[in-house]
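Sample intake — Superfamily II DNA or RNA helicase
Collected from: Catenuloplanes indicus
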Amino acid sequence: MVERAEARQVLAAGRRLRDAAERVADGDRHIRGEARDAYLRERDQLLARHLETLPVSALRDAAGAKVRIAPLEKAGLTTIGAVRSRSEAELAQVPGLSPAGARQLKAVAEQVAEAAARSLAVRVNFDTKDRAATALLTAVHRVLRAEPAVGPARGPARRLVDELESALRSASVAGSLLRMLFAGRTRRERAGAAVDQLRRLVEDAEREKLPAKLARAERAIRERPATPRTVWKDFEKRSAEYYTAFGDLGAEQPDVDSSQGFLPTDITGRVRRQELDDTFRTVTLRGYQSFGARFALAQGRVIIGDEMGLGKTVQSISAMAHLRARGETHFLVVCPASVMVNWTREVADRSKLTAYLLHGGQRGANLRTWTEDGGVAVATVDSLHTLDVPAQTRVALMVVDEAHYVKNPDTRRSKAVREWTDRVPRVIFLSGTPMENKLDEFRNLIGYLQPRVADGLDLAGTVAGPVAFRQAVAPVYLRRNQEDVLRELPDLVRAEEWSEFNRAEFSAYREAVAAGNFMAMRQVAFTADPGGSGKLHRLRELVIEARENGRKVVVFSNFRSVLTEVIELLGPGTFGPLTGSTPVEERQKLVDAFSAVPGHSVLISQIQAGGVGLNIQAASVVILCEPQIKPTIEDQAVARAHRMGQVRSVQVHRLLTADGPDQRILEILQQKRQLFDDYARHSEVARSSPDAVDVDLAKAVIAEEQRRLAV
């Protein structure tokens, strides 16, 4: 009798645990299914609109064979969307089409639709906030809100449902006297074993505190959907997580080749076999980010050259977190002073690792703590040579951010990086612009990491084209571009805002040209006559327009004198200036304060200080006061706003003077950009030599302007 009572207690506990696990598993599938259905409805509407833009004549190209489209056009079915919306029977009624022809056209239209669906991605319009987008974001918000509680319980819940159900079926006999009397010996023994198994399952679950986890997960799943206002505010704050959720829900099918950097199959195979432990990571990675982290782990010493805004930092942190889970303890990040605070924040936000800032008054204490306890040490590239770390301290991975700063092997910073790369087994160089002017400088970076690859590069042979070059550097270099992997990025709209010198400005400009003063030539349009400046007048108009539309603005210039004039023009309420002399710890605080203001605000920043490392995606209007002398500097500045997490289209306005140096600068910039596009991006065979851009830009512009103005 006692045994049967005990069996009943075990059965009851097992049923309670099974029911709780079923509720979590079913509820999780339900809210994720709702999110997927909402996404597919939105994508289907997008697909229908897209197919209505494709002429029916495209069916002939898609079919690869002769098909009759003239009857369709005569019947008014002029788009592929119109054909796809009809059934075969309806198409067969079109005069001039046979049933077989109708069947063929319908099949081809469906093939085109399937191909288009694979290439289309839903992009939520933050400005319109229509009903369908609100429904989609509300469904995804439920998933994201519940995930912290559901994630730890999802696997155990699904496992328990299967294990408990099987054990309960076999053990149920032991709970009934009548059934035990009529059961055979074998069945009674099997029931007794099942009760023991059920008891172990319940005890193991209680020891691992699974009932509490399941209860928290069930409460999170049952929580009522948030209001549209709350959902849209959350989307604005962390849109990247929503787009990542689209992929996690099985709604996105990324371009595998592009997300893997178009690497050779032998390398991609090795990377795919590389595990990535997420025990010490607290964020979900996109597919291409996971690939990047595994590429670094599999290859050991690499350059991740992803375009700005694709998450090179989180890929590096993920590699550290994986190594920490495998027993490693010490990691080192080397970066410009301007992004040190950003690194410590990213480590804290995206992992369970502890970051130590080796800078300022706490440098010594933090260095001692890191040496003893481990974690992520963050040091500046210029102070690396003074970093005194005991030889017995094993640093498992070093990350060098903005690695193109050490491309010149003769500088002190480069020599220090070289010494550390020889000491550390795994190294990641990060740079969206690993080679700005010369391919031999890019080879220098590769030489720090994998000398054999660098020694095997035939720079003379690269003149024949970038394909062979990219194949040669594949073991060490991974590059993905925004358009390859971030299909949800909002539009980037560029506008050139031309103005002319007034009389006072032109006179000052001639004097600067005659003196050969390139810096003065570039600032004349702002400083010679601020009250009559065409550039300042246009800047004011752009800021007023942005204010009326509730958009945030960031204004970049290379010159502090220009920033002073801009602040004087716009008056109080602007944030900044953020310059090279702004303390490192204050830079992100300034950006945070600018971002926190509801609606319109303006940030004024020196382009080298604010255009690297900081995240300014709250801004959707970027004003560049003058063209920069390196093609990558503007790209970096724009990428501060046009990056993963941006929810609005980004407007980029370049202020240019028609009769000043700007036109000459733009012409030479285009030549420099061509080299980078050909060798660092995925493009067709290059036709220009690396030597074609080996130009002293300042001297070239001065000489051209002196000839033009006869001074």
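Post-analysis note: The chain has four domains: 2-46+126-235, 49-119, 258-484, 490-709.
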